[in-house]
Amino acid sequence: MAVLSAEGITFDFEVPVVVVGAGACGLVAALAARDEGQEVLVLERDETPSGSTSLSAGLIPAPCTKLQRQAGIDDSPELFAQDLVAKTHDHTPYDQALAAAKAAGPMIDWLMETHQVEFELVTGFLYPGHSRLRMHGPKSRTGADLEQNLLSAVSNAGIDLITGASVEDLYVDAAGLVAGVRFRRPDGAQEMLGCKALVLACCGFAGDVDMVRQYIPEIADAECCGHLSNTGDAMKWGAALGAGLADMGAYQGHGSVAHPHGLPLTWAVITKGGILLNLEGRRFSNEMRGYSEHAAEVAAQPGHVAWDIYGSPGEEAAMGFHDYRELRKLGVVKTANSVDELAAVTGLPLDAVRHELQALQDAARTGEPDRFGRRFTEDEVLKPPYHAVKVNGALFHTQGGLVIDTQARVLRHDGTPLPNLMAGGGAARGLSGHSNYGYLSGNGLLSATAFGRLAGISAARVATADT
Ligand SMILES: Cc1cc2nc3c(=O)[nH]c(=O)nc-3n(C[C@H](O)[C@H](O)[C@H](O)COP(=O)(O)OP(=O)(O)OC[C@H]3O[C@@H](n4cnc5c(N)ncnc54)[C@H](O)[C@@H]3O)c2cc1C
C-alpha cells in the first residue's frame, strides 16, 4: 500500500470517477456520481462483493423520510444530530453529525424512488439513544439483502464493477492530485487505472490485527466478526498523503454475539427487559448503555462469555430478524419455564440467578434505578418462559479514519481539502466519538450511505470541473 509519484506514469485506461470498495459506501457513491452525469468504475478486492455491509443488519437511521412521515413520526435532522452527539458525550463535531443527519433522509428517499432499493421503517422498539423510530432496512433486516439491492441498482444504472481487483497503490502529482491507481488481480496481474477523482470506500482496519492492537488494544484479543478484507488501506494511503486521521480508537463492538456460532443476537431483546448474566450468574452493567460498549465488558467477564436472558417480549421483537430466526433453527436459544429450569439449561448458579431476577422486580416496584443505573418498568420485569443465549463480545468494525468535511472531501492536517480525494463509511472518521461508547445504533451504515452519497456527488463535480 503505497503512494507513488505520478510523474511519467501512463495508465492502461482512464475513468473520471473511481471508487475503491463495493460495500454500501462505494455502491451509493457510485450511484450518486452516475446521477451527477459522470462515468464511474468500482474496484472491489473480493471476488464476490459483500463487505461489512453484508454482515450487518442493514439498518440505516434517517429522519424525515417519506416512510417516517407516513408513519406519523415527528423527527428532524437537528434532533437526530443531537442524539448522535449526545451518545459520544459531545466528542463528535455537531456540524459533521448534522451533515450526515441532513443527508440521510433524502438519501433513503432517493435510493427508493430513483434506484428502486427497498426499505421499510422498523417499528416496535427504539434502539438505545435514538429518540425517534428512524431505522430503515430491508424487510429481512439483513445487510446481505441491502448489499444485493445496491448491487442490482448499480448494475441497472450501467455502472461497471470489477471484482477481484485489489487496489494497492495510488499515483499522486506534486500538488496532491490523485492521477490514478494500480490494482492487482487474483492471478497477480496488475493494471493501471487513471482517474480525475477518487472515492475511498474501502472501510476500516478490523482486518489488520496490527492496526487493531495499535489503536484499540482493549478489543485486540476479542473475536473479530468484521469483514477481513478491510485492512486499513484508506488510512495507510491517507497518512502518506498528509491527510488527517481522527478517532482511531473508535469502534463498533457487540456484546451479544451467539457463542460459538458467531451470529449477532439483536439488542432488541435487551430493550425489552433482557439482561446479561456472567458465568457467576451476576449482572455486571447497565445493559441499556448500548451494545457496542458491551463488547469489551463481556470480553472482560470470566470465560469471556455471558448469557443473554430475556422473556417473550424480547423473543417477539427478535423474531423480526433473520439472524435470530437462524439462531432458533440452530437450537441456540434455550427456553425455560421456571428459574430452576433457567439455571439448569444455562448451567448458571441457581441462587445468583434467582437473586438477580428478584432484584429486577424490586427495581420495577420502587421505580428507582438499580445498582447499575438502569430502570425497569413492571412490564419489563422478566417472566417465564425465559429465553437464554450464550454470547461473547466481538469487534465488528472500526470507526476512526480519514478526516473529511461535510462534503466528504478528505482533509489535510491543516484542514484544507486534498484536491480530488473523497471518503466515506468505515474509511472516514465516523460519528461515534473516539472510543467504544459513542456508537449509536446504525452509525456504521449512516456514515457509509450518507457520506457515500456526498462523496459520489463531490467526486463527480471535481471530475466535471476538470474536463
Ligand atoms: C457483524 C456486523 C454487524 C453490523 N451491523 C450494523 C447495523 O445493523 N447497522 C449499521 O449501521 N452498521 C452495522 N455494522 C457496520 C456496517 O456494516 C459498516 O459500518 C458499513 O457496512 C461500512 O460500509 P463500507 O461501505 O464503508 O464498508 P464495507 O461494506 O466493509 O465495504 C468495503 C469494501 O472495500 C473492499 N476493500 C477493502 N480494501 C480494498 C482495496 N484495497 N481494494 C479494493 N477493495 C477493497 C472490501 O473488500 C469491502 O468489500 C455492522 C458490522 C458488522 C461487521
Helical/strand content category: alpha/beta
Q: In CATH terms, what is the fold-level topology of the largest domain?
A: FAD/NAD(P)-binding domain
CATH level 1 class label of the largest domain: Alpha Beta
Total strands: 22
Secondary structure tally, helices: 15
Rg (C-alpha, Å): 23 Å
Biggest β-sheet, characterized? 6 strands, mixed
* Arrangement of strands in the largest sheet: 8-4-3-12-22-21
**What is the CATH architecture descriptor of the largest domain?**
3-Layer(bba) Sandwich
Mean pLDDT: 95
Give the percentage of residues in beta strands: 15-25%
pLDDT under 50 segments (min length 5)? none
State the share of residues found in helices, binned by percent. Answer: 25-40%
What distance separates the N and C termini? Answer: 29 Å
Globular, elongated, flat, extended or rod-shaped: what is the shape? Answer: elongated
Domains counted in the coordinates: how many?
2
CATH superfamily of the largest domain: FAD/NAD(P)-binding domain
The distinct ligands, each listed once, are: flavin-adenine dinucleotide
